Amino acid sequence: MSNLKKQIKANATAVASAILLSTSVSQMDAQQKAGILGVDHVGINVPDMNQAVGFFTNVLGFSPVTTLGPIPLDDVWKKANHMQSATGPVTIKMIKAGTGANIELFEYKDNKGSTQQPGGDDIGASHIAFYTNDIKQSVEYLKSKGVEFLGEPFLMPSGDTEGESWVYFVTPWGSKMELVSYPNGKGYEKNNPATILWSPKNINPSKTDVNSKILSEADMRSLIDTHFATWNESDLKKREALMKKVYADDIEMIDRHDILNGYKEISGFVDVLQSRNPKAKFTHIKPAEIHHNIARLFWQNGPSEKPDATTGMDLFVFENGKVKKLYVFVDDKK
């Protein structure tokens, strides 16, 4: 009976692995065929463009960038887009919303569609969530501007969103929106997930156009040098300071055995390596090879009398001015 249970368990594991692999391959295939990179903008209809632009600029501090219209809409367009035939021209403005997706505002002149905001459980209801590092401060500020909140910030106590605080608020025209904050990350990240959700908290807002920043080869080589200094640093505070210079907050390191996320886990990994051989240092075997936002570097690690005791290669993926992913390959010693 025991052997039968083991066989059933093994078969179930194999099936689960096959399904997971099939799903992963299917996702990759779909992404390649669709060619979609991410969210460009979120579009919302507003009753008064001046009111909406004033709220997003004067209250939230965003910037209007482009304007189209008024554009007359013909009957064919209206019918295809399920619009009322008597609705007038549309005016469109695109808002740059900090470090995230843009917001596209639509105002229809003489709008004959429904003017009632959808309820929370209505099909098609939606909201935009804005990230803040200090939700209490943001709530106090928005309240001082007369913004209505639907309750007080709630801290998630457990589960995938453990550590996240959120609260809904209402715009002057009645749309429901949200403030959200998780400066120390979310619960699911503790489980070393293969994929980490994108977050604007990992973008440095003090840098102009950080989302579109392109690193030069010199920049990437400098970051790689700092990466080596990080792994050779034994002082925890100095190592953390170096990590913040070279790694994104949600840095992911992958080797043949582990997937590590964030400064703390990678620093712990470095501690283990240094405890095994305190005299060993990481050095370059040859200069890094760089293509676009990816670089690879062959390295060696060992004491001065045998600097190549261990050899391998690091593959770096750069994003928004820092190392986003680090793939580590260690050579097998014969």
From TrEMBL:
TM region positions: none
Q: Where's the VOC domain? A: 38-182
Keyword match Hydrolase: no
Entry-linked Pfam families: Glyoxalase
The answer to keyword Metal-binding applying to this record is yes
Keyword terms of this UniProt record = Metal-binding
Provide the protein name: VOC domain-containing protein
